[in-house]
What we know:
Elements: E1 22-29, H1 33-39, H2 42-50, H3 64-68, E2 80-85, E3 88-93, E4 102-107, E5 111-117, E6 124-128, E7 131-132, E8 137-139, E9 147-153, E10 167-175, E11 184-189, E12 195-201, E13 207-215, E14 220-226, E15 240-245, E16 248-253, E17 258-264, E18 274-282, E19 291-299, E20 302-310, E21 317-325, E22 329-334, E23 341-348, E24 367-374, E25 380-385, E26 388-394, E27 400-405, H4 409-412, E28 418-427, E29 443-444, E30 453-458, H5 465-468, E31 471-472, E32 481-482, E33 485-494, E34 500-506, E35 515-520, E36 523-524, E37 529-532, E38 536-541, H6 560-564, E39 572-573
Parallel strand pairs: 35-39
Antiparallel strand pairs: 1-4, 1-6, 2-3, 2-5, 5-9, 6-7, 8-9, 10-13, 10-15, 11-12, 11-14, 14-17, 15-16, 18-21, 18-25, 19-20, 19-22, 22-27, 23-24, 25-26, 28-33, 28-35, 29-32, 30-31, 30-34, 34-38, 35-36, 37-38
Amino acid sequence: SNSLCQHPTAEIRMSISCIGNEALLQVKLSLTQDELFIKSRGPFWDRYWEEEEYWEFEDEEFEDEEFEDEGENGIGIYPFVRHQQGDEFSVKKFNPKDLMDYEACVPRDDCSQIVVGGVPTDGYELLFDGKAIDPGYEFYFDALNPVTYTTVGSCTTTPIPVCNDAEALFELRFWSGTIGSHDSTFRVEDQDGNSVLSGSLGGSFSLDKTYACLPKDDACYTFLIGIQEQRDPTNEAASSYTIFFDGELVGSSETWLFESVRFGSCGPSCEEDESVVEFFMYHEMYPDEEFEYKWNLSSPSVSISGVVPHGPGISFLAHETMCVPKGSCASFYIEDRNNVTQTYEDEVLPEGITDWADPNIDWDSLEVANVTVPINVQPVFMISMDNVEYRRVDWGILNQTTNMGDCTYADLCNEQTEDLFYVERRIPADLKTNWGDIPPTPLLMSGHIGAEDWNFGYIYHKDNGKLKNLLTARNYINRASDLNTTLKVFECVPKDGCDLSLNFTAGPVGAPREQYNAKKNGMQLTDGQFVGNVFGSFVTPFGQNCPFSFSSSNALTLSGGAIASVVVVAITVLIWD
Length: 577
């Protein structure tokens, strides 16, 4: 709704007059037009794409309609103020071309929520009824400036419980950001895996606080949180959570798909000679349909099986922590539910008619019957070992086996017909872009400009996607990747030598660079070359001492002239032990 009254002022800052029981709410900017343009995130994108200096304003660059629109489109890109009262809200995006304050008359006895995003906290003053008020809580917004949240007027707060001496206060502070259509699910488990606190977190530009008194003596807890779709904080105001226990900060994040945080009096999850395997699944689609996912974790000395139930009253968030001998090769198998059906009542075609377009259908006499149709449930799951990720995907058609740990050729492959393909991908903690002044990204979304990709397959099958892409990065991660993470892949592939290649699809020069390590049967692959102009592929033949050419008539062959035109870019393919 856009019915709240807002009155932007002119540069002379003449305040509007409020009447009766109304109070004047003001967000008074102390920045100049140029300062806001320099210090906020959105204009950096315009500056890059339009290739204009920040002081050059073309009429078509900042259309008035774009900033007069009081919807939430564009929040996360431009500085803004959002005022909500009950179920009604208004949004004002600050236009660097025609900079004005925000003012509104609001009922003094009602509760109003005030959110300011993308403006330095020292760049504005928040006033209510003529008195300065604190901007309130600060949350992540755009890597340059925070988003702040506070309330004014007559507001009720969540009561904080008083814990006894044997208990400690647990506090979950959840900021929704522009969370969209998917809520997050959280749960707190005790050391035996029993749920002691759980809930769903959603909303839009809202702050939720959850409190609980939990036993603290020799008690260990695990906080779990998951969501179906990871949000892109470079395009939207990010969600975030912060958790405290016994007055201490124990965890926080603004980029999660899945996360677990252990707190309290906790020992190690596994013994020193064991590796920790962590499995997450989120399955919110068709919550009323009953079925289960079967899974198994196996290594030479361990076999653990289980199920993830799905149905009414069952949490969307599943989690398991398991231990396997350190240094072993383990395989995690999960069975896909591709035969799930849904039954509901619907109109059916009369006997003898097979097409709904048939003109002989008597629409007034159609019968209703139970109809059963297949459904695609597409859960999201992640599997990791010792904080190395091996898969972070949704899937809906194939059973999947994920190999983890210290796997060798002999552990997994048929020596007569297969080779072992291995790739390791590291995303640095300080991944940044060299594209002008655009702020660094807090995580790497699969669709980000400059994000690199890879595929493995028969390079000469240009017109056959399945053969060219026997394996792709999206088989293992088709969600965002957190910074400071490592992904490993072990797969057995056909023993076809130089007909196969590993291809990194690089972004343009200056875009974010990731780090890769690739091996065949434990031997380092180092013969790659960059093929193309600004965009292209870093091609590595999958064979020992292979010439960089291919015998097939459809192959990508580097002739002498082509080699001379190869553009070498700063893609990092490192040799690691």
